[in-house]
User: What shape does this take?
Amino acid sequence: MKVLIGTALLLTAASSYAAPPHMSDGRLVDEHGMTLYIFSGQGAPDAKSCEGDCPRNFPPALASPGDTPNHKLGLVHTAEGARQWTYDGKPLYRGLMDKKPGDRAGDGLNTVWHSVQAR
Assistant: This one.
């Protein structure tokens, strides 16, 4: 049982990290082609802007330990000490409402969540 729990924790931690974001079909996506979002509201995302639990619905797009910033992609430290990707200085988030690559269900949500378009 301990091995099973340890394996589950390791898989959960590993799945939180992303390869560097990249553009696909004019949108910024993660290593699985899933849309990444920025928050344009005032302050930090909250339950109203996230449709409930922010860390669950819009988890941060975390960098792997060896990842380095480049061009418009940067890194910031989360309150928990992890490194989160940024685009033009704005933290990037995943949208768990998206089910497959190319989905953008969070785009425009509550007028504060936006996918990042190529400029």
Remarks:
- The longest strand covers residues 73-77.
